[in-house]
Design a protein that fits this description.
This protein is α+β, with helices and mostly antiparallel strands and about 500 residues long. The chain is built from 13 helices and 27 strands. The longest helix has 24 residues.
Length: about 500
Amino acid sequence: MRYKFSLLILPTAFLITCGAFAKKDTVLYKRSFADVAKMAKDSVVNVASLNLEQDEKEMAQRMRNLFVDPKKDLFGVEMLNAPRRVGAVGSGFIIKKEGHTYYVVTNHHIIENGISMRIILADETIHRATLVGKDPDTDIAVLKFETMTNLKVLEWGNSDALHIGEWSIVLGNPYGLGGTSLTTGVISYLARDLNLSMGNKQTLVDNYIQTEAAINPGNSGGPLLNMEGKVIGVNTSIISTSGSNHSVGFAVPASLARKIVEELMTHRKVHRAWFGTSAQALTQDICDYFGLKSTDGALITTVTKGSPAEKAGIKPGDVVISINGKPIKKFADLTIIGKQLKVGKPSDFEVLRNRNRLVLHPVLQEYQEHETFKDNLRFENLPLEDHVYNDDFNFGVTSLTPQFRQRFDIGDLNIDGVLISDVKEEGIAEQFTFTQGDVILEINEKKVHHINDINFIIKESLRLHPEKPVLFLLHRGGSHNTFVAVNSKIKTQKEGGH
């Protein structure tokens, strides 16, 4: 009897809770999953692509059979790694119609090396597709095909208005089985940055929608829908150890995908704005040095010569706090808001410099190149001609010779400073991420030209301002600059035995 009572009371409590939630947040679903599937399934297509790919396994086997010259086979003929034809299947959805021509959104990785592409509709008819444009940095591609059949077009939804816990629907073609399958699940996370959390190759998407709706192989490129049947994302990847779904899938948000698709349909490629800086998040120690009240904003570390940023007067050490009136609350906001800026049009960058607010107006240029940051290099037994050691922070420096420039891949001759030659294990410098091969450019905003400058500037700083961190500007990995604020209080605590 008690068991039956529990069954009766739980649904009642659930209805009351849902009603209160709906009243508070006005989330009322007018459609069921079946309604959304009926409305949208004919607009979801299967994408089949015949791709040319290098046969790396065959090449590796041939290489293992060689005796002398690794570039030639036994008869002295140079080996060629001929590409092979590989089929790829995925999903897509119709987003625009012009007469009898339909435009389909899918993933770039499905058709990346495609030589022949087909669209399979819900009625199983097959149509030849042609490429409109593709963008590997967001994994978005647009195809088009023609048919006399009258097909529905899906509408974009507002991904910026999503909340964790809302229902989401995945439609697509899992495992190439054919037809259109449906899975459901709640939005489990918003603005997921896979570049940071998973160590993936750098992409220009740092705000993926994470959903529990199953996204299996073959679902890539299909739509993530809300309960209104509108597209809130483009399904693109999963986390899996076996290749199948583990209820953790990711979609490019509609707010970004829509802009990319419109660019591809208009220009066949994406015109991205380029500012010409590198930046980093603010730490509390860096805020203490600059006298900032909060860690809101993004700290500029590098300004490229001749860039829009340099022309507008942006300098390393500036803290960007808003762009076009939109606040930069966290470091990721700089990228998210920056993607919305237009090439050739001035923007309003509000920055903090020496605690003063400035508004600068860079005119952004076309995106030039996507930087690939290298891992920090660690080398041992450097041949040192001259060397100075700092006992306050436990690291040593040497002159930045042409040999060291080559060894640490510091090709920019404008990089002027001293090379960190050794970092004491568990010392102060190591705790603050100093790495052998880093170049010290500035200390407390003073240029460092000679190894003897190190101890003089550090000791002067500790004597005059013992309560403040010491700010270092480092050139790291041969590719970018970064600020590091070393808290001198840690040294005092160690000496005091705390």
